[in-house]
Amino acid sequence: MSTAALSQTLKSITILKLKELEKQRRAYELRKAETLRYANLPDVDQRQRVYHLLLAVEQLDPAPASDIDLCNIRRWLDQSNFDTSVPDTMVDEFERQLRSQLDIQTRRLDLANLYSQLLTEWLNPISVDESVTVADDSSLDGSFELVEKDRLKQLVEKFEDVVFSPLEIDEVAIHNYLAALFEDDDAKAPLGRLRSQVKSQCDFRLRRKSPFDETTIRWCLKGLLGNDLLSDEKKVILQDFLTDEVARSEICDVLNMKYRDIKNWTWDAESGMPVQPRRQLNGKYRIMMDEDVLQAIFLHYIGMSWSSWMKKTLSDTILCKSIWKHKMVVPPKGTDRRRYYLGEYEGRNKLGIEEVRHTIYKTDFFLSQLPSSVYEGAGGYDDDQELSDDNTEDRKSPKEIKQQLLRQLASEMHFRLAMEGEFAVVQSDFQWFGTSISHTTISAVLRFIGMSEEWIAFFRKFLEAPLNMAPVSDKSGSSRARIRKRGVPMAHALEKFFGELVLLFMDFSVNQRAEMLLYRFHDDLWLCGQPEKCAKAWNIMEEFSAVMGLEFNRKKTGSVYITKDSTGGTKTRRFTDELPEGPVSVGLLELHSSGEWMIDQVQVDAHVAQLQKQLSQCESILSWVQTWNSCIGRFFSHTFGEPAHCFGRSHVDRILETYRKMQETLFQGSNVTTHLKTLMKERFRNEDIPDAFIYLPEQLGGLGLLNPFISPFLFRDTVFASPDANLRKAITQSRTNYNKAKREFECLSKQERQRRLRKIYPGEFDTANITDAKLDRFFSYEEFVQYDESINPELAYAYRELMTSPHKEDIVLSRRIFEALNSIAVMQPELNQSTLSSETKWILMFYERELFEHCGGLSIIEKNLLPLGILKILRKRRVAWQMVL
Length: 885
Description:
globular; about 55% helix; four-stranded antiparallel β-sheet; Reverse transcriptase domain-containing protein; four-stranded mixed β-sheet; 11 strands
């Protein structure tokens, strides 16, 4: 949100409040100066001087520090007039305390004045030249995302080359490929049910006459406000619609008329829809259409309603036990043998690692881009995007899913190395996936799942949008509309719908033919596990992409093979030769062949250099603070990988070391605290600025600057020093359990073994079979652990523990801080010590002495002196990056 968008009324109120603050400050300083002039006269009696100071403190009401009791000072002064046992040193201390209290209030008002100057500077920024931006080295990769303005022309030209050139794919080949995935009898029935359900849903949606009502229109408006489809100017119109009941009613009438004639729907843009590169918050440029607001609402409803319905239907179909391949259940023969050797109870299935994997996969990765309900909006897959406030599902944000992926890869590595001694991981994504996907591919997949021809025709018209590529500045209107022949209009709910529907069958193919999980987040692709299976799955993915007309992005494709045996073996080398070459990285973490996730210092240096440029271009100190916080809190904090047991304590130390180097680079050997104090001194001539003012939250009168070192230190003592220690312990326990079970079995009599057999195989075995050497001899350790991934609870617990983030070890609050927080929380419940963040508690304790001795308590500035309303609005303004971070 731009400060220009703030209402003039709000600005005026803020300015009046700041003027009133300055008026109070001057009045206080005049009264204080008069008090000190009298108190400093040489012929004034000490007790009279202290009485005068006390009266001034009481009258000026400067919110005395918690350790000063003005009432008691007055009574003890009165006592000293008669009681000669009251020492002069006590009266001296009273004078010192009262003078200090007057000085404390001066500091508080000076800091309040400084804050007002900072806010004024933010409200009236100096113009900064934004013509210079720096691009990363990605050039024309990924999703046509560039940042150098002088290269936007190349971006548009490349976009035109792709989207206006049709890519005809063999639809019969697609149908045959998909049909082969459902050849088994067990899979044919679920596919038949899916097609029947899709057909019924198509008919139902075509029969609907008035799908738009008050509820529908509100979630559509909120969903569009939460994504990047419409420009800021058109989002203002949506905000007006949310507050105008009459407008919403009229919109519903118009859209219901449009829906009843959906078979004849068109984009209704004779000259084509204007298309232009639009810059996102993360600095990337995307080619976006400038759409009509009503059209956007109409399409958002269709996209969200189809997406949420399809996610549930496909989850029930594809993930059903009859066709989805997993190892959660031990086969009957294996169960019977375990019951015989281990006893009735030990033979039962228990929760294992495979079920943990499946639950995470279903919750976080399967069709992750499709909403579970229409109220989730149509958020994107960028890290910067958060879930809608209306989201009631326990669903992770894109940022959280990236962290889950990282922990999954690291935990799988520890497990495979511990169990099998080798591990492989493959990373890739598709080149220009949403921009270049063939319309034939989308139609073929829709037709395969049973979508009606009427709906396929509608979706085809949506895909074939008429585009006008003339620059916005071109008023001649000479450019004509051109029909899009490839790709999907960006940021629509239907973009995710088509993308997930197509790539779902790659997930399914990998599962069916390689018996693996393909961890996919949009078109970011990950395989991890046994090298042989990873190689097979990668070959399947290459075949799938060829059939569907997709192309892997080779710049973002790579693999890593890790083994405990540094020499490897011929079998392993054969499989790893089939894996793609290239590095494997997530965010700024790169996986080395040693098994360590290392921070990529080259990339860090590049981002720090760009951050330094962006900070230098900040128009005000508060915008500087917000840019810093956004970078530290929104970018580096998760691209380094959040602390987790699977990374170990060494990872936390690497984060801390990286932050140390970053500060040295940014501030030439100094630090952020000194830098900000220097800036404020130069601009506002304020010399006496406590360090606490920089870091305390705004509710306590501080700037709220994030200290990047605090959060890692909160985790450092609780994260595992050795990540796989508990995993190794569980494996050792398996051997112990085997030896114990073997001894117990060997102690069984012949009759007891016969009873077990008869219970397991009633009437099928002659008791003479008990003498069979195979049944008389306890099964091998290899068979004992054969199904450990399915039924070993100790392994499952250790595996889940690896993926867990350690708990924060809070700093211990002093009694003085504890009592002060309880006092403040009466008026400011958000500062209750039981709900206060661990980072804020750390800051309060770190600056405790400075806060009480120089500021008189935890609140540097009284809440009523700050225009927190305008501050809250300005804090919501998100930082747009000058480069792809």
